[in-house]
Design a protein that fits this description.
The complex is a heterodimer of chains A (about 425) and B (about 1000). Chain A is built from 16 helices and ten strands. Chain A is an alpha/beta fold and about 425 residues long. In chain A, the strands form three sheets. Chain A has a four-stranded parallel sheet, sandwiched between helices. A four-stranded mixed sheet of chain A has the order 8-7-10-9, with no helix packed on it. The radius of gyration of chain A is 22 Å and the shape is globular. With about 1000 residues, chain B is an alpha/beta fold. Chain B folds into five domains: about 5-120, Ubiquitin-like (UB roll); about 160-295, Alpha-Beta Plaits, CATH 3.30.70.20; about 325-395 and about 565-745, Rossmann fold; about 400-560, Dimethylsulfoxide Reductase, domain 2 (3-Layer(aba) Sandwich); about 855-980, Beta Barrel (Barwin-like endoglucanases), CATH 2.40.40. Classes of the chains: A alpha/beta (about 425), B alpha/beta (about 1000). The interface between A and B is large, with 34 and 37 residues.
Chain lengths: ~425, ~1000
């Protein structure tokens, strides 16, 4: 495996200081795709996206084209763009929002045209202060240039786009919670069925919810054709993808890589990418797709960065966030850190998640601070099992949304892979890494 | 807990729908290996329950939408993607579905959820009010793992949070089931409480600047599955296992909600709603829930909850427990014998002077049906006066009420169109508001609202027609004609335009609804008629009701008469011109003469006429054959505070030769009457009551009346003896059987029938033997779910008709009353059974035009008012607000008046200083004041209008309790006021 010469599809402007301005955007081919799209039929635009086999970049990896076509039964009323990226170690949308807001806006307008919706909401994480400002500015510019609003590019098609800031809740990244939040309610995920907002979404209307990165891919796909996009990558994983690399690596950051062609080893160790482990330490474990994903050990380093490949190995590529742990990382502390996050961000609706996350956090905290008991390990696993029965992957769940079954991943992985480390904590009465 | 589950009607199980063809409304599924049938569209938890399998639950409530958040009811459902755990309260049944409620996986999930719930739930059951009736406690016992593995520290909160004067929250006990928040937004329509915070820090909270002031807040306490929500009147006052319960009917208003009345040591402690399918669905209003305090008669401390247990003052401070007789100007306690002797003497003196008609009887809506009958028999049969009126000038013509076809609450909530021409239903008949709201919110019913100003239902109405006092007939005419208003209404306050639009929509809606080729328009239309303002005579709405009944002959009516058993009182003959069983005086004369010996010769006076006659008003005697009223018997009524026209009531009582007050509570009249006779009040005597639909239900007898108080019927009986007559009644059961044999609309409703389990949800009279729903009295088979109604000890079963083996209902056999063979009199005709309208009410009244300097006065009823029941309930009395005047900014701006300013309202009757409130919802030209509200003491009162003592408030009073009545002239169709800024 190697780093390929695949084009930069969503990060082509990152080299410019002024990548977020309309001037730079227009100078680098901006809005050509939208001009092209509005001359095509909406069905033809959708067909290009379908041909690209673009998988959703939000985490679940659902094919964007299918998400759109599932709605063909009923005319879609709303397009909602999910920019509520707030998981620890996930920061790829952050980059797109701040550094190339026009690309996002153009992608959104193309999707809106393909779906023939007249109202779009871009829901951005509230803490993205700069991103909110820049996307709003980009949108204002788009209105000025006739790319948004009424009769865009004299096509007869009109659409309004609204930028809506979140209020600081991770759960609002869950699409049904996001819709509730948009409606002005508490961000409680909706009970399923209905399984998809496509049937009953915002204000009860058919709604498409897409991720920021997914939208940002659209201008390139329209300019270059879906087939060109599908030619990149392999299998179901086509095109390129953003990988947010963090943890104990020399060069943490966001990297755009062709899917499947590159491996985790490349990403972590290649000098132009991660550059290897800090302090020359050994890799201990890594999280392949965000903190809700089960962990991998060094034996999985040569796994390609492909959705199905990672899935078949027992975890997920998820949001494309890779966290590296090395020999200086305490597995208990890592699991505690992640569990703390989920306990803090559980919406509180379902009992197992609300109470279980806090309980797990307390037990882990006790172990980490040296007050653990050996039976706590079984307790942790059984409490996890009561949130995600069977502790399988993909998980079963006793909760409404997937935040609940995301909690056990790190704990289960940590105990499976580093049971001894837990026992050390218990026996020594202290954290060996402290 | 399956062993606690019982169905109310076992015989209804697995109703057969005939052999052969499968019912399209049914699905066949497998439950724990058994094949069961379920109703398409219902959720698994319900289907399982009917099949005898109880699935544990917390957030699920059968009367609210499922949300599936507590996860206690997870079951294993086999589907295309293998078996998964799914919330049975949310998943709908499907053909071929396989459900397991007992598998290892389910058991583990249930154990897990229970253990989770107890992670942060304190184990303070021994000091928790819910302990002993707690769904969490009970289900932990039945389903939990038995032991918790949780050894960490639980979360802590400061306690309690005072959500309102009535509802307190101990956050650490909350299990976040969201029943309370959902009730508030979904059922009551007032999202005054919601979750705040996230994760395990989620807590129920009111908004920072507002309280949980909903009229229905007590329901959240009742449905809380843990001890998180408590009601201040009950908090720390009893343990569930010390409570005794009887089932009864709430008679705070005429809706007739079914309740469980609980007491400890002869002291009422709590009222809980019982789920009655045709009436209240388990809900109660806070007034009905907490007004029991007035029975205990505790001193009203006026102290709101301040984080401590309420000190209950001396018992019976507000009750009257001994007969009193005025001696040398002071009321002194005497024996019953003496009191009855003095009462009889005074009444006989009046009778000697002016004949039987000289005695007037006011009140009776507080009575049981049996007592009302006894009083009617006393007044009409023994004394011989027909001047008897259970309504206190605040209702509608009794003949009109009886003559129009009555709807049930179910019919109203299932109607295609409901027309409301009445006061604010939420203020007057709160649970009827919930039923109608549920229906209009679900778009089951289209609402046409005709009201002086918008209500909580307006936003759901198809059409809202603003109406000014006096305009009802014109609106009704336009509505049933072409939607065009008469020229006479051209000075409509909002300009005709706005209302014309609404009228047009409403007219088209009515025109397109339910026309029967043969019988005419109005099928599936229900009209709710009631007084919209106490400052408007009853004639306009009565006339409007007649127009609607004439033009929509198939429409049915509900009458928004508020007083507890006013319908029972009217049915029992406590109204001028009527005899028991909905019979007019002349129609029933021979029948009742045969039974009672005598009935009055002619129609008597209503309350207004009696008071005018008492006050010496000559105008009322013109052309009146009956002699003037001289003496007054007030049974559970106080014209001084209840009658809309205070000046008239004061003058009448001042000039009355003799006044007997029969009452359980202290009050203005009871402090100046010549004789005061103490009665047993609600929950202190058994009997039956009749609600707004004509539904007769049982009343429970829970506590013993204080001191020497007697039930009303006994007083009537003894007083009859003292007057030289004989009522020939000796028990409630005996009276009930006499009613069942004698009162035409109640024929067959014997003691045996009313005591049977068949009558659990009540029996609508007259019993229509041809009505299938009456024959079976079968409603949705309800299950006793201890988690839905925690605290309700047990619920009576809904049984089959009492005559085993008889195909029809019990009345079929006793349709012909048992009469002596020598009596050939035929059963008299019930009012309205053959004719649509034979009422003798006033028609052709004139509404005087309003002059441009005056505002037309609207006096609206409020739930928490100065009634003696509220005033003597410590928890409710603090919720009564002071009277103020609301008017449109257009009118107030002209006077330079802002919200909060004091203004003087001057009518032809008197004047009053009130605080003004600008309210854009009040139409121009109208001034709205709450009826029966106290005047803020600091404002002072100036009601005498300089014309002597009869004018209104007495000078020595701090605040008149029914302020607006000082402005109202009851003999006038409308009342106008002038406003002056101060």
């Amino acid at each position: 495996m190697a780093i390929t010469e695949a084009p930069k599809i969503v990060t082509s402007r990152m080299g410019y200081e002024d990548s977020h301005t309309i001037e730079r955007y227009l100078a680098t081919g901006g809005y050509e795709a939208l001009r092209k799209a509005v001359k095509m039929t909406p069905e033809a635009v959708a067909a290009e996206v379908d041909a690209a086999s673009l998988l959703g970049r939000g985490g679940a990896g659902f094919p964007a084209g299918r998400k759109w076509s599932m709605l063909r039964k009923a005319q879609t009323t709303y397009l909602v763009v999910n920019g509520d990226e707030s998981e620890p170690a996930t920061f790829k949308d952050h980059l797109l929002v701040e550094r190339d807001p026009h690309q996002l806006v153009e992608g959104v307008l193309i999707a809106a045209y393909a779906l023939q919706v007249t109202k779009v909401f871009i829901y951005l994480r509230g803490e993205f202060a700069l991103g909110l400002e820049r996307v709003q500015q980009a949108l204002n510019d788009a209105y000025d240039k006739g790319a948004a609003g009424s009769d865009i590019f004299h096509s007869g098609y009109s659409v309004d786009v609204v930028v809506h800031p979140g209020a600081g809740a991770y759960i609002c990244g869950e699409e049904t919670a996001l819709l509730e939040s948009l409606e002005g309610k508490r961000g409680f995920p909706r009970i399923k069925p209905p399984f998809f907002p496509a049937a009953i979404g915002l204000y009860g209307e058919p709604t498409v919810v897409n991720n920021v990165e997914t939208m940002s891919n659209l201008p390139w796909i329209i300019n270059n054709g879906g087939a060109a996009f599908a030619a990149l990558g392999a299998g179901r994983s086509t095109g390129t993808r953003l990988f947010a690399l963090s943890g104990r690596v020399k060069n943490p950051g966001v990297y755009e890589l062709e899917m499947v062609k590159t491996t985790f080893r490349d990403l972590i160790y290649a000098p132009v990418l991660g550059g290897g482990i800090l302090d020359g330490n050994d890799l201990k474990a890594f999280i392949p797709g965000g903190v809700s994903a089960p962990w991998f050990g060094p034996e999985h380093l040569d796994l390609p960065l492909g959705q199905d490949e990672v899935g078949e190995a027992g975890s997920m590529l998820g949001s494309g966030s890779i966290v590296v742990m090395d020999s200086s990382t305490c597995a208990v502390r890592a699991a505690l850190r992640i569990t703390k996050f989920f306990a803090r961000e559980s919406c509180g609706q379902c009992t197992p998640c609300r109470e279980g996350s806090g309980w797990l956090k307390r037990v882990l905290n006790r172990i980490e601070s040296g007050e653990g008991r050996e039976e706590d390990l079984d307790l942790l696993l059984d409490v996890c099992d009561n949130i995600a029965p069977g502790l399988t992957w993909p998980p079963q769940q006793t909760t409404i949304c997937v935040l609940g079954p995301s909690i056990p991943s790190s704990i289960h992985s940590a105990i499976l892979m580093f049971r001894d480390e837990f026992l050390h904590h218990v026996k020594d009465g202290a954290c060996p890494y402290a | 807990m399956p062993e606690e589950t019982q169905t109310r009607n076992d015989s209804d199980h697995g109703e057969s729908h005939g052999e052969g063809a499968p019912d399209p409304g049914e699905v066949t599924m497998t439950l724990d290996g058994r094949t069961i049938s379920a109703r398409r569209g219902e959720v698994v938890i319900k289907a399982a329950e009917r099949a005898g399998t109880y699935i544990p639950r917390f957030c699920y409530h059968p009367r609210m939408k499922s949300v599936g958040v507590c996860r206690m009811c997870l079951v294993e459902v086999s589907g295309p993607r293998g078996s998964t755990l799914q919330p049975s309260c949310y998943v709908e049944v499907a053909d071929g579905m396989e459900v397991s409620t007992k598998s290892e996986k389910v058991k583990k999930a249930q154990d897990g959820v229970l253990e989770f719930l107890l992670v942060n739930h304190p184990l303070d059951c021994p000091v928790c009010d819910k302990g002993g009736e707690c769904p969490l406690q009970d289900q932990t016992l039945a389903y939990g793992p038995g032991e918790s593995r949780f050894i960490e520290e639980k979360r802590h909160f400061e306690k309690p949070v005072v959500l309102s004067d009535l509802v307190l929250l101990d956050r650490e006990r909350c299990i976040q089931c969201s029943r309370c928040t959902r009730f508030a937004s979904e059922v009551a329509g007032e999202a005054q409480i919601d979750f705040a915070g996230r994760g395990e820090q989620v807590e129920v909270a009111a908004f920072p600047d507002t309280k949980f002031t909903s009229y229905f807040s007590g329901n959240t306490v009742q449905i809380c599955p843990v001890g998180a929500l408590t009601a201040s009147p009950y908090r720390f006052s009893a343990r569930p296992w010390d409570l005794d319960q009887v089932e009864s009917t709430c008679t705070t208003c005429s809706v007739g909600c079914r309740v469980a009345v609980q007491s400890s040591l002869n002291r009422l402690t709590r009222i809980l709603g019982i789920d009655s399918e045709p009436v209240n669905h388990g809900w109660l209003c806070d007034k009905g829930r907490f007004v029991f305090e007035s029975v205990n008669g505790d001193e009203v401390s006026g102290g709101r909850y301040e984080g401590e247990v309420r000190e209950t003052g001396s018992n019976l401070a507000t009750r009257i427990s001994e007969p009193l007789v005025k001696k040398d100007g002071t009321l002194v306690p005497v024996s019953w014998n003496e009191a009855l002797r003095v009462a009889a003497k005074g009444l006989l003196k009046a009778k000697e002077a002016g004949g039987p008609e000289a005695i007037g009887v006011i009140g009776g809506a507080r009575l049981t049906n049996e007592s009302a009958y006894a009083w009617a028999k006393l007044a009409k049969g023994v004394i011989g006066t027909d001047s008897v009126d259970a309504q206190i000038g605040d209702g509608l013509s009794s003949e009109l009420v009886l003559s129009l076809p009555r709807a049930t609450i179910d019919e109203a909530s299932n109607a295609e169109v409901v027309v409301t021409l009445c006061g604010d239903i939420r203020e007057e008949l709160p649970v009827l508001f919930l039923r109608l709201r549920e229906s209009v919110v679900a778009h089951k019913t289209s609402l046409i609202e005709i009201a002086p100003c918008p209500t909580e239902l307006t936003k759901f109405a198809e059409a809202f027609i603003a109406i000014r006092p006096g305009d009802a007939p014109a609106i009704a005419g336009a509505l049933t004609r072409d939607g065009r208003l008469d020229a006479a209404l051209s000075n409509h306050p909002e300009g005709a335009a706005a209302s014309a639009d609404a009228l047009g929509i409403a007219t088209r809606l009515l025109a397109s609804t339910g026309t029967d080729k043969e019988r005419g328009r109005g099928r599936r239309v229900v009209v709710v008629v009631g007084r919209q303002s106490m400052a408007e005579g009853s004639a306009p709405v009565e006339e409007a009701a007649r127009i609607l009944a004439r033009e929509l002959p198939e429409a049915k009516f509900l009458f928004a008469l508020r007083r507890g058993n006013v319908f029972g009182a009217i049915d029992m003959g406590l109204a001028p011109g009527l005899l028991p069983g909905r019979v007019e005086l002349d129609a029933g004369r021979r029948w009742f003469e045969a039974a009672w010996g005598a009935v009055p010769d002619r129609r008597g006076r209503d309350t207004t006429s009696m008071l005018m006659s008492l006050s010496g008003d000559e105008s009322i005697e013109e052309g009146n054959e009956i002699s003037p009223t001289r003496a007054l018997l007030a049974i559970g009524a106080d014209p001084l505070s209840d009658f809309p026209d205070r000046a008239l009531a004061v003058a009448a009582i001042d000039r009355a030769e003799f006044v007997v007050a029969v009452t359980g509570h202290r009050g203005e009249l009871a402090s100046i009457a010549d004789v005061v006779l103490p009665v047993a009040v609600s929950h202190e005597r058994p009997g039956t009551t009749t609600n707004i639909e004509g539904r007769v239900t049982r009343l429970g007898h829970k506590v013993v009346a204080p001191g020497h108080a007697w039930p009303d019927w006994m007083i009537a009986s003894e007083l009859a003896g003292s007057l030289g007559g004989d009522l020939d009644v000796d028990s409630v059961e005996g009276i009930r059987n006499e009613i069942a044999n004698l009162a035409p609309a109640y024929l067959g409703l014997s003691n045996e029938v009313m005591s049977s389990s068949w009558a659990r949800d009540g029996v609508v009279v007259p019993i229509d033997v041809n009505d299938e729903s009456v024959r079976s009295n079968r409603h949705e088979v309800l299950l006793v779910d201890p988690v839905a109604l925690p605290g309700v000890d047990s619920v009576e079963r809904q049984g089959a008709p009492p005559r085993v083996g008889s195909a029809g209902p019990p009345v079929a056999e006793s349709e012909e009353p048992r009469r002596d063979a020598r009596d050939p009199v035929e059963v008299p005709q019930i009012v309205g059974r053959d004719r649509r309208d034979n009422s003798s009410g006033v028609t052709g009244f004139q509404t005087p035009p309003a002059d441009s300097y005056s505002l037309r006065l609207v006096a609206q009823r409020c739930l928490y008012d100065s009634s003696s029941a509220v005033a003597s309930s410590p928890s409710l009395s603090t919720l009564v607000s002071f009277a103020r005047v609301r008017a449109n900014g257009y009118d107030l701006d002209r006077l330079g008046v802002k919200t909060g300013d004091l203004v003087k309202l001057r009518s032809a009757r008197g004047s009053l200083v009130l605080e003004a409130h600008v309210d854009s919802q009040v139409p121009r030209g109208v001034a709205v004041v709450g009826f029966n509200l106290p005047l803020a003491a600091s404002n002072g009162s100036n009601g005498s209008n300089g014309s002597g003592g009869a004018g209104g408030a007495r000078d020595d009073e701090d605040g008149v309790i029914n302020a607006v009545s000082m402005l109202i002239d009851a003999s006038s169709v409308v009342n106008d006021v002038r406003m002056e800024s101060l």
